[in-house]
Specification:
Shape of chain B: globular
Oligomer: heterodimer
Number of strands of chain B: 5
Distance between the termini of chain B: 25 Å
Strand order of the largest sheet of chain B: 2-1-3-4-5
Helix content of chain A: 40-55%
Helix content of chain B: 40-55%
Largest interface: A-B, 19 and 17 residues
Strand content of chain B: 15-25%
Chain lengths: ~140, ~140
């Protein structure tokens, strides 16, 4: 993922750091948003991104609200919704907005595999770092 | 959230947004645009006044149909912006948003005909208040 630019949005600092480490291990460039408002700003003013990985529950606006508004503005960025509270309404909304959804907790390898599928093929392959080393990166931080 | 599901009765209505926090400005602008409004953005009350003056506000052609403004901002804050508009006999609807509006601020905002929305707010509530303020103008 050497040339991929990934935006990770989560209000939990540990979760953001974990996501950053996972994608940086894949040689992607990673930027972070800590709230729905920051996600909105980065999407509108600092894009384009190749992939957004975003939590649902964040301050000011949910990841799905920001995604809905971004789609209305014509932004078609691949968006992976990550959530620990995926009821049918959330799943349906994500589907309608053309996003993929991944339930917390998940393992680093699962995230990398999903991200590779969502990225344009060239970006997914170039500079691929191979399997993740079995380390502290493998599991999601507790409580996030 | 009501964005996109509300009937876009106010398409092409212009909102001037004054907010010094770049994240909040981007979020509010994004929500208003998704609901069909045209949005001009200002980083504080002073810039908002410059935009209004530059487009002839107070003269012939109004630059905006409504102002959404934070209260706590550098240079010219939201309440001062409201006072200057009213002093210039500009009756444009104003929606003020704030996390720290005390009773005196609330009374002054009400006296000058502004609507006030407390932070943190739901985006749907913001759009409902803006829509209501637009109705008042019609």
């Amino acid at each position: 993922m050497k040339f991929a630019r990934v935006l990770v949005a989560d209000d939990n600092r540990e979760m953001r750091s974990w996501l950053r480490e996972i994608f940086e291990a894949q040689r992607a460039t990673v930027e972070e948003a800590h709230s729905g408002a920051e996600l909105a700003r980065r999407l509108m003013h600092e894009g384009p991104f190749d992939l957004v990985v975003g939590d649902v529950r964040m301050s000011w606006a949910t990841g799905l609200q920001v995604l809905e508004m971004a789609r209305a503005a014509g932004n078609a960025v691949p968006f992976l919704v990550i959530t620990g509270f995926a009821d049918e309404a959330v799943r349906e909304r994500a589907r309608q907005l053309g996003a993929e959804l991944m339930e917390k907790p998940f393992e680093a390898e699962q995230l990398v595999e999903r991200a590779r599928r969502m990225l344009p093929p060239l970006l997914a392959r170039v500079g691929a770092a191979g399997p993740l080393a079995p380390s502290r990166l493998a599991r999601q931080p507790t409580g996030s | 959230m009501q964005a996109l599901s509300l009937p876009q009765r106010y398409a092409h209505k212009r909102v001037l947004l004054a907010e010094d926090d770049p994240d909040m400005r981007a979020l509010i602008a994004m929500a208003l645009r998704a609901d069909g409004y045209e949005v001009a953005e200002a980083r504080d009350g002073g810039e908002a006044l410059e935009l209004l003056r530059g487009a002839g506000m107070g003269g012939v052609a109004p630059a905006a149909d409504l102002v959404v403004s934070d209260i706590q901002m550098p240079r010219v804050n939201g309440l001062e912006l409201l006072e200057r508009l009213r002093a210039g006999r500009v009756g444009i609807p104003v929606v003020l948003v704030s996390a720290f509006a005390d009773t005196a601020v609330r009374c002054e905002a009400r006296r000058l005909g502004a609507m006030l929305l407390d932070k943190p707010f739901d985006l749907g509530d913001l759009l409902a208040v803006v829509s209501e303020a637009m109705e008042v103008r019609r």
